[in-house]
Amino acid sequence: MTALLSVKNLTVEFTTRDGIAPVIDDLSFDLAPGETLSLVGESGCGKSMTALAIMGLIPSPPGRVASGSISLAGENLLQAGDTRMRAVRGNDISMVFQEPMTSLNPVFTVGEQISETLRRHQGLTRRQAKALSIEMLDAVQIPLPTRRINDYPHQLSGGMRQRVMIAMALACRPKVLIADEPTTALDVTVQAQIFDLMRAVGKETEAAIILITHDMGSVAEMAERVVVMYAGRKIEEGCVDDILARPRHPYTRGLIACVPHLLETVSAERPYLQEIPGMVPPLSDFGFMGCLFAPRCDRVETRCWQEKPKVTQITPSQSAACWNLQEAKVRVDA
Amino acid sequence: MTDYSIRERSLQPTVARVEHPLIETARMFAGNRAALSGLAMLFIIVVVSLAGPWLYPTDPFEMVWSPFSPPGAKGFLLGTDYLGRDLLAQIIHGGRATLAVGCAAALLSVFIGITFGALSGFYRGWIEEILMRITEFFQVLPTLLFSMVLVALFGASLGMITFAIGIVSWTGVARITRAEFLKIRELEYVTAARSSGASNTNLIFRVILPNSLPPIVVQAALLIGFAILFEAGLSFLGLSDANVMSWGAIMGNNRPYILLHGFTIMYPGLAIFLTVLSISLIGDGLNDALNPKLRKR
Q: Structure pTM?
């Protein structure tokens, strides 16, 4: 399996009042062509920052890529110039944002906005771009695309706008689609539709998808592989089935336990919703030379406070960074 | 039967009637009586000024009768000025220059203002520091005095007067544009546009500027009125192009006789007043139409 997108030892630092904090700390993962990979973690774990780093859009200052590499089909994007990156964005890698209500330019019709991306990257004429835009709107199952193309964003509902965003993101047939919590702002019935759509259109355009989410339920539904992030570090990686069935890191286990009825066998034994006590440490604590999850962990040992956990390869596809790897299934509390 | 057709209809995908934002704004504007009357008034003023030389071909520079003939005398509707020139002809012919200077000066200041505001709001950092310090320099400048110096130094041609007015009145536009840019550049659709490969030029002209236009348009409309007043002020003080008749110039010419023959100043003054009033009404109407949330009704 050759990787399409390969992130190696990526470290992104933010300069804060308290000093320099690594919001992404030595992160590595690979994305195969056509694969769906999910980045999971709570808010503030560096998921969105990873997406922005791949797009080359880390807000700077205060952010800065300190080390590592991000290569797309062998090309190191961190060394690419501004012009090259502009050609990559929207064409090779594109992104769908969390808030469909605010991610479309309110003064242009959705057709103009899709066409603009197409004309910018594919050098199409106005007419060709319009025809392709209609085709894309049709592909994302917007009814009457020939007329909807003249609509302004405010005339569409949230779900419709997210479809437009997906149409826009996939219009140039990118190799990688980054979806940053694409369904968080939508209601549940629409979420399922959007996932189905992303899967279908993603498959059709052969785009690999990076799905950023904090919801293990979405992961189970969408992804093939998972990277679990905590406080800027990768703490577990593996196939979805393995991770859901045999989570090895206490944090992954906690995330799964938070979702009711994700695993049928568990729900009966688990009458109450679980939570992970505490919260993600503040940015100033990032980069601490122990395990950052230690304060919230129920299996914490002295070693966890002193040394950064080593990554253990459990199976060829699954690895976790913990001093006290779990063998057990999802925790069941009384 | 009816039931069936209703159900049938609700199953059909429908599209709400699409209305271009400009049409929507025009509709809001049309509902505002004050703004509409302002527009009507300005329309008449503009038409008369443009067509005036054909409607009323009397040469405004020609001495046609004895000086200071009162309005109505010898068929001169508004009388004659201190040289015995037809006042009505002067007002009708002078509108062109006045409106032209007003619009050109407003255009110039909007252009400078948007450039300064957009660059400093978009790029921030040292560009913003430099441009905003320059803006502040122009803000604290005594505007009338500065314009007078410019016109006095470089000659009272129409072009110089326009430049002198434009160069002192752009700071408001710059500050408004910068504020809008600072607000909009942080919005998600700017990041989204960036992530689809938009260049900085693209972001400025296609994404941020169109979204920050409403307050700028209102300011631009009001600037025309301001520029007309400013031109009148300069002319009143004697700084007008002697070869071109303008409302301000009429007032300036007759200034020494203001106490004896007030009408020679009153009529051009009235023309200026009505023009500026109509522009202000239009500006307010635009403000209401473009920012419906700000309406205090």
A: 0.82
The CATH number of the domain holding residue B171 is 1.10.3720.10
Element (H, E) at A163: helix A158-170
Q: How many helices (H) and strands (E) does chain B have?
A: 13, 0
| Cβ contact B196:A171 at 8 Å | no
A95 to chain B: closest CA residue: B195
* Residue pairs spanning A and B at CB distance below 8 A: 75
In a domain, B218, yes or no: yes
Q: Is B56 exposed, middle or buried (0-12, 13-18, 19+ CB in 10 A)?
A: middle
User: Can you tell me whether residue A101 is helix, strand or coil?
Assistant: coil
ipTM attached to this prediction: 0.82
Q: Where are the alpha helices (DSSP H) in B155-262?
A: 158-168, 171-184, 188-195, 200-202, 209-236, 247-254
Structural domain of residue B112, as residue ranges?
Answer: 32-294
Give the one of A89, A121, A147 whose C-beta lies nearest to B195's C-beta.
A89
Residue B196: which of A117, A144, A155 has the nearest Cβ? Answer: A117
Residue A155 to residue B18, Cβ atoms within 8 A: yes
- The domain tally of chain B equals 1
Which residues of A lie inside 8 Å of B (Cβ-Cβ)?
A: 55, 57, 86-91, 94-95, 97, 99, 102-108, 116-117, 120-121, 143-144, 147-148, 150-152, 155, 165, 168-169
In tens digits, what is the pLDDT along chain B, a chain of 297 residues? 445 555 555 555 555 566 677 787 888 788 888 888 999 999 998 998 888 888 888 777 777 777 777 777 777 777 777 777 888 888 888 888 889 999 999 999 999 999 999 999 999 889 999 999 999 999 999 988 999 999 889 988 888 999 999 999 999 999 999 999 999 988 889 989 988 888 889 899 989 999 998 889 889 988 999 999 999 888 888 888 878 888 888 888 888 888 888 788 888 889 999 999 999 999 888 888 887 665 544
CA nearest to B16 within chain A = A155
